[in-house]
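Per your request, structure below.
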């Protein structure tokens, strides 16, 4: 209905890129983002500028490659309608950029007081910024050659609400955009007129300023890396003080500005209360989940110890069974070797007996053969003696016959 607002954040990073989050899912998404980047340092900057200043183009130039680009273009109703958080590029190894992109000043759907209240909420609620923002980037086109309303709003915020004395300007970066569209004298005007006028309340009227084009944001990256380690500290001044500082710039009566700012601050405060309740609820659930995780971890640890004990017992039983089996095998092997040795001994004894039996049989046969041979020799000897006697007898008979014949012959002669 135009009289209520919600502090929405669009997180261009998983789980749901470019999703406009309701408050009920905001913190779960922030927690998922926190868990995804818990080991990475994050530099958080708030980007403020007017509609058509190239603010969204600048955010697209600094976004992370995985984050989808935001819609760009110059329109009376602006492009960005709520504060959205965009996951930016890796500024250097281990350091990511987180960009808080605000609606453009001059947006017909977002009043200046509404924007101021939203920015104050972002600056003050350190729970959403994990301790606070690291800096504010104020965009202003170099060719325009003036401090525009968006920059003037930031001036008022710094002068009236920032804490830190002269050092508070160290967290502010004035970023001149559209360097690729400048004409002769534009850069000189930016350096000599716009920068000193913007930092008029800063020491020596100087501060961090850079000039960028749509193709080169490296000067801004270096400036962001050079931001002080101290977070932005903001304490909202009274609506009367803010109205007095903004009324002339807006051309509106102080009372109307103060009433409008009070109205928006009240609505944002209610929203902050809801957010704080959600944060507390998220922290409580996170604590309960942590307790549940610890309980499960304890159970798992006990199960692990039990499994380890069972495993050790099983290992011991297995080793014992293996030892018993080894001893049984050794026993069986020894018995087998004993039986084998006995068998070999028996076989050797049997072979010995068989050998002795064969030897006896052979000796017997030899004895029989020798006897037969002896008998045969004796018989041959007898036969030879008989033959010799027969021959002798025959020889003696022949001799006797010859002698008798000789004697007969002699007798005849005589």
């Amino acid at each position: 209905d135009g009289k209520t607002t919600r502090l929405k954040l669009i997180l261009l990073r998983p789980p749901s890129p470019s999703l406009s989050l309701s408050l009920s899912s905001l913190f779960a998404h922030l927690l998922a983002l926190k868990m995804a980047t818990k080991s990475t340092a994050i530099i958080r900057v708030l980007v403020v500028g007017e509609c058509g200043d190239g603010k969204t183009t600048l955010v697209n130039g600094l976004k992370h490659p995985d984050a989808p680009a935001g819609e760009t273009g110059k329109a009376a109703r602006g492009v960005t309608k709520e504060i959205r958080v965009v996951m930016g590029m890796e500024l250097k190894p281990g350091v990511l950029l987180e960009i808080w992109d605000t609606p453009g000043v001059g947006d017909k759907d977002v009043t200046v007081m509404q924007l101021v209240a939203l920015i104050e909420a972002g600056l003050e609620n350190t729970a959403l910024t994990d301790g606070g923002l690291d800096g504010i980037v104020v965009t202003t086109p170099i060719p325009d050659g003036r401090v525009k309303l968006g920059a003037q709003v930031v001036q008022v915020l710094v002068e009236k609400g920032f804490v830190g004395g002269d050092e508070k300007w160290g967290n502010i970066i004035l970023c001149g955009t559209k360097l690729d569209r400048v004409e002769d004298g534009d850069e000189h005007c930016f350096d000599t007129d716009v920068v000193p006028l913007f930092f008029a309340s800063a020491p020596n009227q100087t501060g961090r300023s850079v000039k960028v084009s749509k193709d080169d944001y490296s000067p801004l990256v270096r400036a962001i890396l050079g931001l002080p380690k101290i977070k932005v500290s903001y304490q909202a001044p009274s609506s009367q003080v803010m109205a007095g500082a903004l009324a002339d710039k807006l051309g509106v009566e102080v009372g109307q500005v103060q009433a409008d700012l009070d109205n928006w601050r009240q609505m944002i405060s209610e929203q902050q209360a809801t957010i704080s309740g959600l944060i507390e609820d998220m922290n409580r659930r996170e604590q309960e989940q942590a307790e549940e995780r610890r309980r499960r971890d304890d159970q798992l640890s006990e199960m692990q110890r039990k499994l380890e004990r069972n495993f050790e017992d099983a290992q011991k039983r297995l080793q014992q069974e293996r030892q018993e089996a080894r001893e049984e095998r050794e026993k069986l092997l020894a018995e087998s070797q004993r039986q084998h040795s006995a068998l070999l001994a028996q076989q050797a004894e049997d072979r010995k007996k068989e050998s002795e039996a064969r030897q006896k049989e052979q000796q017997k046969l030899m004895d029989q053969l020798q006897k037969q041979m002896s008998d045969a020799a004796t018989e041959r000897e007898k036969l030879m003696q008989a033959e010799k006697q027969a021959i002798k007898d025959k020889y003696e008979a022949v001799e006797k016959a010859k002698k008798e014949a000789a004697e007969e012959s002699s007798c005849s002669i005589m």
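Confidence is low (pLDDT under 50) at residues 1-29, 73-80.

Regards,
D.
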